[in-house]
Fold Glycolipid-binding domain-containing protein.
Amino acid sequence: MPRGRYSLHDPHDHTPLGEEHFQCAPGPSGWRYVAQRTAPSGDHSGSVDLTLDELGRPLRVELHSASWQVRGAALDGVTWVRTDPTGEHATEGNVRAHSFTGASPAFLIALSRLLRLEPGAGAVRVRLVAFTDPVLAPITLDQSWALLDRTGHATDTGPLVVDEYQVSEMDTGEVRRVHIAGDVVLAAPGIELEELESPPSSFAT
């Protein structure tokens, strides 16, 4: 069960955005990721709870940020309910999309699991609903994912397989590289793995 800490920053000007203290593990239903987020001041700023089924689809996602809350799942595309800080108003949403995304590294793992790309197989286009910080506003966007390379590295605990993805934003043309090992993001724009207490888990094929 990997447990560790990511630091988050603005990928353009490197402004610190806080940290995400996480643990994750495969389970009977697929995979679960839970995390607590802190602001640069150290104050608690939100949480992430994401459960995938064995195919990588979001069985349940629950996000908290700035007293806003989102709960969602894969249902007729993706469906969610967003609740305001007072708890008096809730708005429902539904989009014919493949999955969710957002600032948490968990969503990169989820997309890699859903797509199951092979090196050299070409890019795949996906439609996603992103929940933007700090008020978890939903935005529909399109990305292109391609698995550029898969390399093995010898470690003290056994071989570590690292996948290098190219992720392109279809509306802006922005391209970024994401490195993932099992269920841990090793590096991505705006994300740094600062601590990891145990090796990444390997997904069963």
Summary: The chain has a mean pLDDT of 94.
